[in-house]
Write a structure and sequence with these properties.
7 helices; 245 residues; 8 strands; two-stranded antiparallel ribbon; six-stranded mixed β-sheet; alpha/beta
Length: 245
């Protein structure tokens, strides 16, 4: 899947700063009561892996708890790569695609020599504008290709929230990565790394609706990353709180 491939490629070149953000995220989840947490977990209902995932038990027999997805961004470029809003990107893509089709229709009329001759009828024939030196055509086609890649690869935050892949989503960043809190993805919370290796809560995450099946899959994947089989073992018990995880 696209998300898996991209995330695995990035993990290979992981920096010390990014690893530290993940370590702090694991510690923050523990403080939130998550007794099960792991790094590099593929989320349910999406093609993406998340840097850190956690599960907080409900404390009630037979009732699933809440899930947390944390994405760590050490630089602004890293943040912007995943921060496109899906709706806006799709709307722009549709607009550019319409422009391309309108221009294609005009070029068919004015450049009959580009016709490939695969059909007896001109309106059904294919046209090859690949070598055409037309500035507007090249600009629109390049923009269309860029938006298609952006929609496929650059809307991770937007899709994770929309799919309900976790109950709570947090962006974990270095100081200065965000220009302002308005850049925090819709529905997401924000944690900023402070000097002295701690995380400062800048914005609480909204509680997103995540179906029971998705939460169960989430827990199983966290458990698998932790190296134990949930079908064979029970979750450890928090004896101080008297609840399972």
């Amino acid at each position: 899947m696209v998300g898996d491939n991209l995330d695995s490629q990035r993990a290979k070149g992981e920096s010390r700063r990014h690893r530290e953000l993940k370590r702090l995220s694991m510690e923050w989840l523990r403080l939130q009561g998550c007794r099960a947490a792991a790094t590099e977990v593929r989320l349910p209902l999406s093609p993406y892996r998340v840097d850190v995932a956690g599960y907080r038990a409900s404390g009630r027999m037979g009732v699933l708890g809440e899930t947390f997805a944390l994405e760590c961004k050490q630089s602004r470029a890293d943040f912007l790569r995943d921060a496109s809003v899906e709706g806006e990107a799709r709307s722009e893509l549709e607009g550019v695609a319409e422009e391309v089709e309108r221009l294609r229709g005009l070029l068919r009329v004015h450049l009959p020599e580009c016709r490939q001759g695969l059909s007896l009828f001109r309106e059904y024939d294919a046209y090859d504008f690949g070598d055409l030196r037309h500035e507007r055509w090249r600009r629109l086609v390049s923009r269309l290709a860029l938006l298609e890649r952006k929609l496929a690869d650059g809307v991770k935050f937007s899709r994770i929230a929309r799919y309900g892949a976790a109950n709570f989503c947090y962006l974990v960043v270095e100081e200065g990565v965000l220009k302002n809190l308005g850049e925090v993805p819709v529905g997401w919370g924000c944690l900023v790394r402070e000097e002295g290796s701690s995380l400062r809560l800048e914005r609480e995450a909204e509680r997103l609706v995540s179906e029971e099946a998705a939460r169960l899959t989430f827990l199983e994947r966290v458990a698998a990353r932790k190296g134990w089989n949930p079908s064979l073992q029970t979750l450890p018990v928090d004896r101080d709180r008297g609840r399972s995880c």
